[in-house]
Amino acid sequence: MGTLKTMAFLTKKKLALAVGLLVIVGGAGAFYSKSRTPVVEAPRFRTAAVDTGNITQSVTATGTINPVALINIGSQVSGTVSELKADFNDHVSKGQVLLTLDPTIFNAQIRQAEAQLASARASLRLAQATHSRNQTLVTQSFISPLALDQSRREVEVAQANIQLAEAQLARAQADLNNSVIRAPIDGVIIKRTVDLGQTVAASFTTPQLFQIARDLTKMQIDTSVSEADVGSLKEGQEARFVVDAYPDKEFSARMRQFRLAANVVQNVVTYNVVLDVDNQDELLKPGMTAQVRLLVGNRQNVLRVPTAALRFRLSDEEIEKQKKLAAAAASASASASASASASASAAAVAQDDDAGFRSKADLARLFRIYTLDAHNQPKAQEVKIGLSNFRYTEIVGGDLKKGDQVITRAISNEKEGGM
Known about the structure:
Elements: H1 2-36, E1 45-49, E2 51-67, E3 70-74, E4 79-84, E5 91-92, E6 97-101, H2 104-139, H3 145-178, E7 180-182, E8 187-192, E9 199-200, E10 208-213, E11 218-226, E12 238-243, E13 251-265, E14 268-278, E15 289-306, H4 308-311, H5 316-332, H6 336-349, H7 360-364, E16 366-372, E17 378-388, E18 392-397, E19 405-410
Antiparallel strand pairs: 1-19, 2-11, 2-15, 3-10, 4-6, 4-9, 5-8, 6-7, 8-10, 11-14, 12-13, 12-15, 13-14, 15-18, 16-17, 17-18
Helix pairs in contact: 2-3, 5-6
């Protein structure tokens, strides 16, 4: 009986030991299996999804709003302003008197010219009478033919003096007329640089008295566009612009003229572009600064990626890390196909220029962007781009499809917003 109890006790003890061993072996197996599971790293990059939508490409420029026709009014004669009949912002009509210079000197010049003309006419009458008398005396042989010729010359000189006096009188009359400044067109006075009683001196240069805009409901924007952007400009293109006076309002314009004369400032080449603006409500004023966007391209419902994805490049540390991962994968794999796949992965990560067989036109539109694989590792892909702006870029070639995640930038190791 004692022997049986002893055997039962030993059997239970062995069973407990066996169960314990199984638990230990199972735990070790589970730990080993867990250690063999591939570790997926936390995301190290910001990504954005490839989607479809509209893309508008534009050329930006800064310009000045000016009237279409701007006339500078000056004075051809000197004098003192005796009457001022126009002021800033006045609407004037063609021929309207704007100011008058003191006519005293001009009236005196006219009287002087009239006196010289009367004297010349009197001299002509005397010369004609003398010449007629000499003709009679020559026939009677009282004077020589030479005296007759001299009298004829006196008549011709007197006639020339009359013409000179008439010209001087006309000039004096023109100066009097020019002392009254009139509006040459219908328009609005936007600038006045003279005051009542001021002396206007026109000895060397024509002084600017007024500046008149023909019609403020029709304006233009004079802009300067960089030489890199002029290839996409065409007459008639639409444009949008804003001014500081109305920051919440956007105005429309249309390109009227591209001027061929280049402007070079510190080796920077720009060209003048003129845009027409409808200003029926007259909100826009001459001299305002306009921030202009010329619309040079538009695509509807196309495959697109954020433009930031085209600018992203792996750091040197990231490239070395990818190369080490590829080399480790190649050494761990015994098959030739796995080794070839790892080598291809390392070659895709390296940022080299291996597209020498492509044409220059293709290379100009080819870009390398990066997507994330199943293990959150960057994978390089070449794409061909189309229209582009600061936010989105059109994809016209490559293996990308809608929904793919492309890398836009790396996430800093430091906590965002930390000190």
